[in-house]
Amino acid sequence: MDESYLTSLHGMAPRQELADEVYELLRAHIMRGTIPPGVRINIEDVARQLNVSPTPVRETLARLESEGLVDRQPRRGYTATELLSRDDVRELYEMRMLLEPYAVERAALGANATFLRQITDELEAGRELAKAGASIPPAELSAHDERFHDLIFRAAGNELIRQSYARTHCHLHIFRLSFSDTFDDHTIAEHGQIVEPLASGNIPAAAEAMRAHIVASEGRVLNYFESQQSQPAGWRNSPLRSRAAG
Q1: 179 domain-assigned
Q2: Which helix (DSSP H) or strand (DSSP E) does residue 40 occupy?
Q3: What does the pLDDT read at residue 79?
């Protein structure tokens, strides 16, 4: 049983035995990949490493299960959720195509100057990453992408949609960290194509740029599956059904 991830929890005990602090710690480890997909999470071991009782760990795992970041299995307990299958990816991008053009339309219609400045600043931060010349670290690029899209949802002003997106997009973040070839700096150029019409209030152009970005991003991820002769260990098996882009 691989529980080597526990070593990364040393020295990170929460200040109090509160479930929300334990939640933030474990969620961060799952999102960074230091608790890898498919690895069993032993409640007693985690509680001992964090110097807390098992109760906040159980509460945390229940919260993470509701977000789809851990799975609970009879007689085995909790494991970090397996990576996305090809069908999972398709469904996630279908949801993105429904939510994100709408969100950017709302943002272009009524975003205040503060949000527009934050979105522009995030784009510039992404461009600075690209200026380094070398390949952008996947974790930094994925974090930029997550912040950029979250800012657009914030500017759109619908918190329910924003939270729904965040609960599913985190799985794509983990996938990209595991397979960095699915995520490259084309993303930053595509973000720039979204920001220009967004900032000028050109609603149709902003929505179209977002659609183009989603299609391109989906293509990069699906190309991973097309290039593989076999799936990596720990993946859910699923039929490789084709999907027309657009």
Answers
A1: yes
A2: strand 40-41
A3: 93
